[in-house]
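ugh ok so i messed up the first submission bc i forgot one of the chains. this is the corrected input, ALL of the components this time, i swear. 428 residues overall. if the numbers dont match what u have on ur side tell me asap before i send this to the collaborators (the ones from the other lab, u know who)
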Amino acid sequence: MTTAAIELRGVCKRYPFFALEDVSFRLEPGQIMGFVGANGAGKTTTIRILMALVRQDAGDVELLGCRMPDEQVRAKWDVGFVSEEMKLFGGATLAWHLGFVRSLFPGAWDDRYAARLLQRFHLHPGQRVKGLSRGERVKALMLLALARKPRLLVLDEPTAGLDPVARQELIGELMEILQDEERSILFSSHNTLDVEQISDQITFLDRGRIVDSGDKEVFFDRWRRLSLELPEAVALPDVVGVVDVARSGHTAVVTANAFDDELPAAYQRAGATLRDVQRMTLEEIFVATVMQKRKERGA
Amino acid sequence: MHSELTISQADSRPMYLQIIEQVRRRVAVGDWGPGQEIPSIRALAASTRVSVITIKRAYFELEHEGVITTRQGRGTFVSENVQLQQDLREQELDQHLAKAADAGRELGLGTKELEQRLREVVRKKEETR
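and heres the new structure output, hopefully the right one now
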């Protein structure tokens, strides 16, 4: 097996009012993973553990084959990290920041790429950081991380606070990076549209636990919403792969997470008429997954 | 290479199907000729801003259908089959006809009546030409 860009095995971290429990997932080189969760689900905590800003209580973390936090110095040469919490020097210009990061990563920094990104993101080297808008600040942080061409990018809510045009510019840049098969990206978001568009892998986190993780295309193939019409006397059978049935009068809406052709057939044999089978958006899939897992855990 | 393919999140069809359809369309109208090189998976992912895995799936199915071929280390090409353009256009026609047949069946029309309707449409088209 090749070295994973990211590998977490059984990671736990306890706080007085929050716990990350048994978090495991793997990101292969050359792929983008969208890390999706509600506010407070534990996305930022997981990312802070990945970046060795917080030490896990238990479990193994590896970035590009380096054990974290012990080998963080080696790992961080090749990992770019962007989070909104990051500080820039308010009084200094963007040009000063470019020079600073360049001096830290002399071999890796790409001047031409930095110049292109400045243009793409409509940023000016002479701008002082404290005069930047929220969106410009995010783009400046992104530029500083991208221009040294790390093999792995870890982005905490990169599109939050960006207007639609800036978001598309950023997404375009991320996709450009992926033209190189050795480079990988993990980004957290609660914007499921961004995740749906560019991710190869998707991981859902809720209340400190992974509730699902896998290949995006498989997610979309598995989930369906069925509309059924049925005579009053007909009882709907229990069907494997169904997570929710909402029945009212002569209609029922069935949500399935393991859809195949056999599934509607089972209802038809029971006397129901199939009116419609619909694919679900990532947002609908995310909400259905979270509700199902919360119900299971509550029971 | 600019692909000129665009995918829409408002489209109810999954993204990989949109890609398949647009590649077939480019070949059907002759913009992408037999043997012509087309964007690699990663290049198309970058230009459409759609995940690599989605493009991979679309290319896999297009290859399976015989529309494109991948030569290891060389790139991805439209199939050399010169009949392909004609075949794809005929497939498109068949899809339209299948829809018409479905609509006819819903209206309770028989095969004879449906044929009559088609003749009628063709006649009207020729008159207005």
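quick check: The beta strands of chain B are 37-38, 68-71, 75-78. that seems consistent at least. Chain B has two domains: 15-78, 84-127.
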